[in-house]
Amino acid sequence: MDGILPLWKEPGMTSHDCVFKVRKILRMKKVGHTGTLDPDVDGVLPICLGRATKIAEYITDAGKSYRAEVTIGFSTTTEDASGDIVEQKSVRRKWTAIQLESILDSFIGSIEQTPPMYSAVKVNGKRLYEYARQGIHVERPTRMITIHHIKLDEGSIVTNSDVLKFSIDVACGKGTYIRTLAVMIGEAMGYPAHMSKLTRTESASMTKKDCLTLTELAELAENSNAVLSPLIPLERGISQLKKLRISGTVAMKVMNGAVLPIPSDWPAISDEPVALYEEERALAIYHVHPTKEGLIKPVKVLWIE
């Protein structure tokens, strides 16, 4: 069983919980997820099965979209609703949709972001949340992230008990922490803030309409043929990569992981990866050889003869 299972993760489970349950339901070991979702978060979680586990990192690196609720008025230790309150400031000012949209627009593009202490980012070989749980504060690496799109849901704006809440739709690049973005939005408004709810609405072009729940998967698994119906070909998970069509003896060499001369129609610039296809089947992912001029080498061989 090879392909991508578009799972709708429900709240209360970790991404690893989902992988464990899928392994049990499908009775297979080669299962992997494509980017951690916190237990409180629901939404699209593509699960890679069989050969598709080889391209999990490309799905993880592909763009994602979210629906987030931002609460302005107090911040938390974890930057989401599960943490303890750190700072409070009553929101007395009346914010209009136009004013909020102006703030949100300032985050579109490439911006710097510092990941939260309660995150899986590693510093000196140790994850930040491990330091946080021990009460140790360490210097966190600031990095560039990309916000492609951010839109306010005007109908979601609510002021209650000196707190302002509103929902936003965000499309972003890899490495973006939406809870940190919520904190940054609050800072731009002059208030402490946190992310109070989050749903991942899209991952690598997969949306809720593509997904099924663990319960639905278990029902389908009772019929070995039916369980294949929701699977998405692994090629969709690497659709963002540039493509090169090959055939014949070259295809055989690619499936054997051969180092090859750079083809005349090589589409990549510098070391950008390229997916090599025989007709509609992705055989491998190659990039320019890092040390041998004029050659390309495989990063991932997806089909082996």
UniProtKB/TrEMBL annotation:
Residues 179-235 form the tRNA pseudouridylate synthase B C-terminal domain. Keywords: Isomerase, tRNA processing. It is an enzyme of class 5 (isomerase). It catalyses: uridine(55) in tRNA = pseudouridine(55) in tRNA. The keyword tRNA processing applies. It comes from the Bacteria. The active site is at residue 38. PANTHER family: PSEUDOURIDYLATE SYNTHASE TRUB1, TRNA-PSEUDOURIDINE SYNTHASE. HAMAP family: TruB_bact (MF_01080). This is tRNA pseudouridine synthase B. It comes from Jeotgalibacillus marinus.
